[in-house]
Amino acid sequence: MATFRIALNMEYCRSADMSFEAGVAKAAELGYTHIEPMVHTGWELLSEVGYFHSFSMEEDPLMMKEICDRHGVRVSSFSGHSPLMKPEASVPRLTRAILFADYLNADFINTDEMLKPEWMDNPFAHETMRYTLSRISRVAARHGKYVCIEPHGVYTKTAAGLLKIVRLVDSPWIAVNWDTGNAYLAGAEDPYEAMASCRDHIRHVHAKDISLQQSDAERGSVTGTPVGCACGEGVVDWERVVSLLDPLDREITLSVECGKIDEAARSLCFLTQLLGDKLAGDQR
């Protein structure tokens, strides 16, 4: 039987123009014990002036640990989204993210295939992703970290397309981050049947709910969305999500992906009540 851990993706404070540390402090204040930071390479202007939560991997990873320790939270996973069809960007970025995960004692780095260049046909795109994942899977194996691919793009909008990418390399360290909101919005197939198809590969979940208004406006016309509404206030059937994951004999992190601070607070309350004694012991 699965046990569950609730975390908070740092996108929750994007609309509040918060720095990384301010976002960590607020997450702790809301009652979260674990977070999923967004990381980037290079020096991003808004982050440097304290208006954005993304953390540069040019910094010392132990600086991130000091910030988290100061506010009593831990890193559960990293949002290391990188374009798998652009290896010159994704290989160094994901490599750095895996190293950060090792320093921060986090087990998961989340990504997706991102955008497909117009000049790439399907065989070329998959061969390029196979190269990227072949490089990355070796780094992941050395450090014992899972690189988890989520439904968010033209290929991963179906379970078959997602699993095809996961299986491009024969590695247990390439897995699935199931995004409940993206799978629903894509509208390509029943999201719960798709989740069941991918279940054995799921190591991490983006707990993203979709408002009825967004569903009516976008379902079937997009393959994903940055954030959703508060968990329990949208169209996602959370009891069914938990029941589908329940047979897995491992701990599953549900990382809340919402767009506002008050939504993060309500999501934590909802998921805590929903999961009850299924929560990891230190979160009950």
Descriptive tags:
284 residues, nine-stranded parallel sheet, two-stranded parallel sheet, 11 strands, 18% strand, globular
How would you describe this structure to a colleague?
- With 284 residues, the chain is α/β, with parallel strands linked by helices.
- It has one domain (3-283): TIM Barrel (Alpha-Beta Barrel), CATH 3.20.20.150.
- Helices cover 42% and strands 18% of the residues.
- The chain has helices spanning 20-30, 45-48, 61-71, 87-104, 122-143, 159-166, 180-186, 191-198, 212-218, 238-245, 261-275, and strands at 3-9, 34-36, 39-40, 55-56, 74-75, 77-83, 108-112, 146-149, 174-179, 202-207, 251-256.
- The chain has a nine-stranded parallel sheet. Strands 3-4 form a two-stranded parallel ribbon.
- Strand 8 (146-149), helix 6 (159-166) and strand 9 form a beta-alpha-beta unit.
- The longest helix is centred in the middle third of the chain and has 22 residues, at 122-143.
- It is globular, with a radius of gyration of 17 Å.
- The two termini are 17 Å apart.
